[in-house]
Amino acid sequence: MAQLPILSLLTFLPLVGAIFILTIRGDEDVVKRNARHVALWTSLINFALSLFIWVHFDTTTADFQFVESKPWMPSYNIGYKMGIDGISMLFVLLTTLLTPICILASWENINDRVKEYMICFLVLETFMIGMFCALDLVVFYIFFEAVLIPMFLIIGVWGGPRRVYASFKLFLYTLAGSVLMLLAIMAMYFDAGTTDIPGLMVHRFPPELQTWLWLAFFASFAVKIPMWPVHTWLPDAHVEAPTAGSVILAAVLLKFGGYGLLRFSLPMFPDASVMFTPLIYTLSIIAIIYTSLVALAQEDMKKLIAYSSVAHMGFVTIGAFTLTVQGIEGSIYQMLAHGIISAALFLVVGVVYDRIHSREISAYGGLVHRMPGYSLIFMIFMLGSVGLPGTAGFVGEFLVLVGAFKANTWVAAFAATGLILGAAYMLYLYRRIIFGSLTKDSLTAIKDVSLREVAIFAPLIVLVIWMGIYPAPFLEIMHVSVENMIIQIESALNASAAISIAGQ
Amino acid sequence: MADIPNIIPALPELFLAAIGMALLMLGVFHKTGGIEDIKASRLISLLTIVALLLTVLLVSTLSGGRLVTFGNMFVSDTFAVYCKVLVLIGSALAIIISQGFLERHDMARFEYSILILFATLGMMMMISANDLISLYIGLELQSLSLYVIASFQRDDTRSTEAGLKYFVLGAVASGMLLYGSSLVYGFTGTTNFDQLANIFANNHGETSIGVIFGVVFILAALAFKVSAVPFHMWTPDVYEGAPTPVTAFFSVAPKIAALALFIRVMVGPFGGLASEWQQIVILISVASMALGAFAAINQTNIKRMMAYSSIGHAGYALIGLAVGTEAGIQSVLIYLAIYLVMNIGVFTCILCMRRDGHMVENIRDLAGMNRAHPMLALVLAILMFSVAGIPPFAGFFGKFYIFVAAIEAHLYALAIFGVLSSVVGTFYYLRIIQMVYFEDPDEALDPPAGKELTIVLTVTGLFVTLFFIYPAPILSAAAAAAASLFSG
């Protein structure tokens, strides 16, 4: 089975689907229907394929699995290499799960240029999976950057009234961060003589160089995560993006940054990471508290959830830099939980937006009287976002706080305030939309969730509760890889400490 | 009795010159008037394309060792072969996309293709020059043909103005080149590249100020030809004024030839003076990238925007030269190959911008193109992302190798400046995509006229999209070409 290039298959299958959609010709309605079906089935097959990989994934080794390697630019010693370990496995699953959900969520509300829309989503899926599977820095960078193209088009073509501004901001902000990382990749290439990721993980970069490389990578990842103060593109992008665009943006694109920190910054530049840990803590705590307060004051539902994303990602960065098993596992778990919960929350907003065409919180109120099913779904995800025990959100935040407590009690104390504020803004949002009396004329005829919508939410509900009650299968996947990573980092730190002592 | 020089290394040039004269005869003695003019121009442009492609074959047979002839004034090496092939392909593509335009605008005269052919001949001589004198002759043959082509649309004041402006400023540049050459000759006693290289390699850091002055003058003239800041002023006006297929031709073939010449002169004879000219090239490069990025933002005419874009691209290519190493030159050569395809593609898209049978050139006119012509819009978007340097398109790789070379040479500041100005530049390429995809159409454009445009668009679009799959052949060809420049 190792011979079958299953990761390449997983990566490029959506692209094949996209090319197929491109060739569809004929009557407009036929084209629309076919494009939708092809996109859905391609992404579902891809999801099945990723489940197959999950089943065959060996949780007892920290090595990269399903590795494929081909020469690509031999004169530069850059190869095409793919592989996954415990850290990337779950993100691949997250991506393949959410793409069909996004396509299903756009089934009825996207009627303009359906063909192009589905092509964008399938191409986006290819780039996202490729990014998580890439085991060569240049290949990684190409996927990382290429994601911007479909995202730019999704927001710009199918977005809201200020879509041009939002899409340009997203593109230029993230591009500016990424190009610096590109230069850092080149500098790493000349220091280590390779762009092979496993090879770079064992290469020891000189500490001064590490500082610069770390900063360059941070410039890129901080924008992607996004960390305060470079988060401002996110609320704009979320508000203007169509529902499925917001879903994929919050669920997968934001994870690029966190994944990048875990895959590159920590194992490759351990000395610099330790040096910059206070900076990360400070920015994360500011992000958690400040954006939670900002979220409290929002009038727009999507904007509120966007700010809550920034706050939740603050936990991710804190957890990653505690360099404890709990902290890092918590940060990965938090990313997965946030990926599912925030995706679901944007879908929840999408449901009422499709009916009323307003995202203003003040346009709603008392929905529980007309939409009991909807209120229940909303409540589950709202509580998941708050971090109620028994939901996925709790496990991640709890592990992060345990790790943070081990590393620095003050950080844990400040981060914990974020939980309270999180409960405040989410419950406040829920109360304003769901409870109260149904007084607005526009809402009197509103319909409850349809069967298609239930089908979209059902797998997400199952996951939120499963991940909250029985997290072991997920933690098991990442555990060996995370432990191995920490051992590597610690031995690298000890080695450089020994050198600096010897130097004195 | 003088020996007959070895004509083998110059065979492609001789072939092209003979064909050019034969075609001229054919054109002169062809029947004239009305439909016959168009027939003649069709026939001759077809024959010119065939001749150019045959020359590509002839040139390729010469790839191998370094051959010099005509008293050491003419050299043929792998570097020359690589650049000549690019120039020939660029010229052939330019003629292919021109014909329909010429016929629609009543300018279908047979001289057009022949002028391009002679310009190409001049470029090939520039690329193969091994002496300041042969350099000048090649350059002038090219430039004089280009001045005429720029004003080929005789009854259009903009075109005439473009030709005149190009001529006056070009003449100044040629004057500077001659003045610089005479200074170099006066202080060293030779104009031959090999002898100059020897002199500067063995002068132990003592270079007379006169030579430096000469080199700076030559540099200024070459910067003019590649339209690098501060000698770029002619570019926007000429690009805007000249007929669109001519602009397409200007933006590729002469530019590639001039950059090849720039590289040969700086690395060859003046290689020993690298420490003197490197800082100038860095400055020119930084200024070109900055101007290319910022000045294009406010343009409303797409040809003018592409003019600034090409200034910016000259800046990126010059990074590779500023590095001055083999890796640097290799990266420029890769960049030029990719740049050639992208620019021909973009200008073919511009040639497709017609409404009610008239050419339109405003960026605003692209609005909503996606609805009327989805495939054309897709190709234009791909090309724009590629020109901006967004992976996985070819343009990204062009920039990638350039920056790899810059980082290898520890030119960190230059590299950082380069990537940041490319982010700024991305803005105006995205604006085109915004027009094509995000805006609603005012009035639909006409469908692309002519099969040849569609074919060129398909080929360039596929090349740009699929370059990443198998880049190795171009990489190794460029590597061999760069190596030949340093071995001699």
Task: Describe the structure in brief.
The complex is a heterodimer of chains A (504) and B (488). Chain A has 504 residues and is mainly alpha-helical.
Supply the number of structural domains of chain A. 1
Q: Which stretches of chain A of 5+ consecutive residues score pLDDT under 50? A: none
Average pLDDT metric of chain B: 89
> H/E order of the elements of chain B?
HHEEHHHHHHHHHHHEEHHHHHH
- Order the strands across the largest sheet of chain B as they lie in space: 1-2
How would you spell out the order of helices and strands of chain A? HHEEHHHHHHHHHHHHHHHHHH
Written account of the structure:
The complex is a heterodimer of chains A (504) and B (488). Chain A is mainly alpha-helical. Chain A has one domain. Helix content of chain A is 77%, strand content 3%. Chain A is built from 20 helices and two strands. A two-stranded antiparallel ribbon of chain A has the order 1-2. The longest helix of chain A is centred in the last third of the chain and has 32 residues. The radius of gyration of chain A is 22 Å and the shape is globular. The termini of chain A are far apart. Chain B has one domain. In chain B, 74% of the residues lie in helices and 2% in strands. In chain B, the strands form two sheets. Chain B has a two-stranded antiparallel sheet with strand order 1-2. In chain B, strands 3-4 form a two-stranded antiparallel ribbon. In chain B, strand 1 and strand 2 form a beta hairpin. In chain B, helix 6 runs antiparallel to helix 8, helix 6 packs antiparallel against helix 9 and helix 9 crosses helix 12. Chain B is globular. Chain B starts with 10 loop residues before the first helix and ends with a helix. The model of chain B has no long low-confidence stretch (mean pLDDT 89). Chains A and B meet through helix 5, helix 6 and helix 7 of A and helix 16, helix 17 and helix 19 of B.
